[in-house]
Write a sequence for this structure.
């Protein structure tokens, strides 16, 4: 999967964004998920810590905008996701929309994103291209 990290100008303020450079749905789900990680999400103990803590094997790690669920060495990212036993009574699994990413890839992307959003913006046109194959090197 190929992602780009860059900035957009929103009301005269540069905002870091993550976009998918792939034609696969997983790229858009991951990009949406990554965009929701701001500086505070890395500073506060919580979702990021759960993702990188490999002893956690079954945990909801989503946001208001998109769901994510750790299942061992994989993470489901999408919409209408629930853990086993947490489904509401009217839950229909056919309504769930999700893709699965290796946890190792997601951790790699998040570490790169953390560095990106914490560095000073010197060039508003600066862009980084992330190839998740590098997570396995």
């Amino acid at each position: 999967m190929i992602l780009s990290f860059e900035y957009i100008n929103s009301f005269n303020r540069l905002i870091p964004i993550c976009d998918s450079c792939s034609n696969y749905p997983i790229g858009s789900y991951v990009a949406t998920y990554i965009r929701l990680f701001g500086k505070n999400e890395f500073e506060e103990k919580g979702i990021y810590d759960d993702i990188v803590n490999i002893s956690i094997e079954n945990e909801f790690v989503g946001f208001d905008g998109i769901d994510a669920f750790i299942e061992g060495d994989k993470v489901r990212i999408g919409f209408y996701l629930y853990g086993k036993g947490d489904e509401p009574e009217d839950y229909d699994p056919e309504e769930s929309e999700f893709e699965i990413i290796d946890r190792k890839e997601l951790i790699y992307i998040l570490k790169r994103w953390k560095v990106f959003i914490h560095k000073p913006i010197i060039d508003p046109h600066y862009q980084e291209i992330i190839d998740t194959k590098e997570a396995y090197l």
